[in-house]
Amino acid sequence: MRPQRPWAAIAAATVLNLPLGSIYAFSVFLKPIEAELGLGRSDMSLVFAVASVGFTVGMLLVPLAFGRMSAAALVGVSGAAAVLGVGLAAMANGLGLLLVGYSVLFGISGGATYIVAQQSANLLITRNRGLVNGYITGLYPAGAMLAAPLFGWCDETLGYRTTLALLALVLLAATVASVWLLGHSGVVLRGRVRGEADATGRTAIFIRMWLLFFLAAAAGLTVLSQAAGIIAAYGGTAALALTATTAITGAVAVARLSGGWLTDRFAVPHVCAAAHGWSLTGAVLLTLFPSPIVAAVALAMVAMGHGFISGATASGIALYWPAPAFGRVASQIYIGWCAAAISLPLLAGYLFDLTHGYGTAVLIAGCGNLVGGTISLGLPRGRKEISDTDEQDANDGPRPHMPKPHAAGGVDTPTDLT
């Protein structure tokens, strides 16, 4: 048996997902690309939305290669596609090539590597899965936090095309390092195994998690994709918009890590409901007190709610399903991320073009958080509730070992789900 090194899988996820996470700093590119290519805000919203679709396509396709290609090979192919996509975006002279390079190639490769990284880590770790999954989901906004000020400075001094070209070089180096690390980790990706169909048949749990994730992501992605533009619309200066964008992505990174960590200690439904409540509070504050500073704080709260949900969702998948099924279940739940990216962010861009404001979009986001918090409370807390759900499922069958109730109301991760 090959020696297994969980630290190498986590290091690979870190090295590659940080630069890929720069997609969350996309709002920094809005004005320079609009000015040079003559595009509108709805056009730029479309670029981010299609990138989100590509991200989801990558997540859905890559599990099909499990058992056929190694984790290192999958990351190598995906990383090469990301480098090519960002390079094409740097050369784009219109919306078409920008969509092909940034939205399709960069988006698909990001989704594929994200699932490979999560699947690899969940196959190798047996303790503190909530914390580790929260960490991995937090890498994307952490990467955006680092990228936003660098992108802003580079856009001003060298132009956005140079910024994208430099990003392509960073992605190339990150891909090479990640390929070596995953090969060194000893992880083996497996195809479908016997009994997995029964394990992935928890339809009621899946639907609830999909919906609460979608509703949080719709609000959060609107902020992450248009934060700089939203703050400017509320009267903020360019400096405040850039500073807030950087701070928001950092807050989301902390929230994702915290969302996973909290599920190691508290029940998943309670963490998710509290996360939606936090976002709702931000939307209410911005509606009642519209001003630049309040906008920066409120948008951070809305985005953090999405961050908490992201970490808690990844942790919940690891708790409710066995490790070999993680990548497939996660990729299907993350379709909600794609649906969210092409819903409220696009609508918000359209409404801005019509009204030059984001007030209505903020109200819609708040209503979604209210519904999401209610749905969250229907998730199971422990073993008995999961068993009851399985008995009602149309695909009922032999059940794998499930987590036992935590003394504090949360759920303990089994020591070995592989």
Task: Describe the structure using short key phrases.
418 residues, mainly alpha, Growth Hormone, Chain: A, 17 helices, 76% helix, 0% strand
DSSP strand (E) fraction? Answer: under 5%
What is the tally of beta strands?
0
Mean pLDDT: 84
CATH topology: Growth Hormone, Chain: A
What radius of gyration results from the CA coordinates?
20 Å
Characterization of this structure:
There is one protein chain. The protein is mostly helical and about 425 residues long. It has one domain (about 5-390): MFS general substrate transporter like domains (Growth Hormone, Chain: A, Up-down Bundle), CATH 1.20.1250.20. About 75% of the residues lie in helices and about 0% in strands. The protein is built from 17 helices and no strands. α15 (about 345-355) packs antiparallel against α16 (about 360-375). The protein is globular and about 55 Å long. Mean pLDDT is about 85; it is low at about 195-200 and about 390-418.
